[in-house]
Amino acid sequence: MAIRRRLETDPDLDITSFMSLMTVLVPVLLLNMVFSHISVLNLNLPGLSDASAAEQKENQQLEMVLRAEYIDINYPAGIRVKRIPNRDGEPDLKLVSDVLQEIKRALRDKDIDKKDVVILSEPGTSYRTLVSAMDTARSFRAVVAASVVDAELFPQISLGDAPQQGDAAQDKQLAGNAL
């Protein structure tokens, strides 16, 4: 009896098509991958407080009221420092930043270290406008030692609803420079 032995040989794997698939698939997946950047804003929501009159006088609120046609900056709350009309249908945030810098300097000259601002917006205010106003109130770009840095203005931001617009006589009464 003759026994034949089979020669056991491993079959060759043809992986060229698989390698071609991986060569195309890996860059496509990497290009479509979403790189997300999460930023966190600490907001102070207005609450009820039982502060004494002396503390309220010492800690007067700085308000930025966002309206459809203009932005009012009030200090103390309700007393307008400056009304900044929109330019080309958009808020003039550059001028808002300049006014806030001027207020910060005036407060610093009076030895008041103010870091909070209340942003009051109308119900129809767009999200983009609100975030841009928050960024403008938080900091501004300054050149220090030949490099551009973000200088701090009012980093503690509180949000609220803007008061209803009054008549013209009341509007003129509120207009005044409190600084």
From TrEMBL:
Coiled coil: none annotated. Keywords: Cell membrane, Membrane, Protein transport, Transmembrane, Transmembrane helix, Transport. It comes from the Bacteria. GO terms for biological process: protein transport. One of its GO terms (cellular component) is plasma membrane. It is found in: Cell membrane. GO terms for molecular function: transmembrane transporter activity. It is a single-pass membrane protein; Single-pass type II membrane protein. Belongs to the ExbD/TolR family. This is Biopolymer transporter ExbD. It comes from Microbulbifer agarilyticus.
